[in-house]
Amino acid sequence: MRNETMAIHAGYEPEATTHAVAVPIYQTAAYAFDSADHGAALFNLEAEGFRYSRIANPTSAVLEKRISQLEGGVGALAVATGQAALHFAFVNVADHGGNIVSVPQLYGTTHTLLSHILPRQGITGRFAESDKPEAIEKLIDENTRAVFAETIGNPAGNVCDIEALAKIAHAHGVPLIVDNTVATPILLKPFDYGADIAVHSLTKFLGGHGTTLGGAIVDSGNFPWAKHADRFPAYNRPDTSYHGLVYAERFGRTAYIERARSVYQRTMGSVLSPFNAFLLLQGIETVALRMERHVENAQKVAEFLRKDPRVAWVNYTGFPDSPYYPLVQKYLGGNASSLFTFGIKGGMEAGKTFYDALKLITRLVNIGDAKSLACHPASTTHRQMSAEQQRIAGVLPETIRLSIGIEHSADIIEDIDQALDKACPSRLQAAE
Ligand SMILES: Cc1ncc(COP(=O)(O)O)c(C=O)c1O
Q1: Of 90, 120, 165, 427, which residue has the fewest beta carbons closer than 10 angstroms?
Q2: Residues contacting ligand 1 via CB (< 6 Å)
Q3: Alpha-carbon gap, residue 394 to 25, rounded angstroms
Q4: pLDDT-based confidence at 429, cuts 50/70/90?
């Protein structure tokens, strides 16, 4: 099936009892057992079925199958937020003493997770100087448990060379984990280029309407955990917390995602509510169409900004002179992200006036809504970083991040134009 069809149908057929066409919301905490033996078989992971909604739920299961099919994976786990997905994705490969080698251009909270929170549990985040494969390779050592990158960085908009990163990770016996939130599987399928695990904030383009938080981890099924038994003992030795199960032996290609569910979702419980799974499924039905319009509108807005004398710079990877342009062609089929940044003349103060003058475009910290959104990262999403870390992540004091929505492009441009007028009253003055 193709993207548009999977987004609507994957993972669900009208269910047997009621023939409901929409995915039912199974708002239940638990599921009845036929007998003691049936309950035991479910707990031993021998029988298929549901036992308790912290572990799995039929509405969320449809969402998991849909995202997994869109990514071309062997299984997925839906969780409460993108951050929960990232947390589980990392601790599912790294224990105390392990490190995760990452590109530096990350969403601010993910940067905080790797630089402040996981280190308290003995897992170190190592940030490369850049997203270049050579910079990543320099930091990998015998304690590395994964390489990590955002396929399109938020807010830098950088496009990572997934194929090269995967080759390096695999040469050192570790998986490549990617956050594919900004690209979505509509623009990019990282498993086609060797990534092993994909993580999503479903809150953004996939859900698409800014109503519902959610996250997902998707397993490509391709990382050979048994081959790297010394580096990943948790997959290859009996798990005393789960009656001696050996994940790689028992589950083969789905070992990673089954372990994420049985170990982390079961004991830490960042559960997505079935109602939220339903809302996210509704959103996903139109993601392919929406992404087309996001991309088209963003190009028009970026071109308008670039020609405007009041604007100092526009960091949009769809311009042929962007260093990321060749990667946009290779990985995104030429569809540059609708998330991009720019700065206006007059620096921080003019930037703030512009930001406050927006009328249609909403001031907030979110991306990927049908609505156009603007954010000032230095004072919000990336506030916890040092000035230098901000610079490397693509955040300058004046940077405005836009997430261009699917309204009529002329209305978006008119709003930006009037806000630029307020921030920079004389066009001639700006041109000087
Ligand atoms: C790239 C990226 N990953 C993960 C997240 C975290 O997602 P959530 O807000 O659903 O926890 C965000 C949030 O902005 C993000 O932009």
Answers
A1: 120
A2: 81-83, 107, 110, 150, 154, 179, 181-182, 201, 203, 213, 215, 367
A3: 41
A4: low
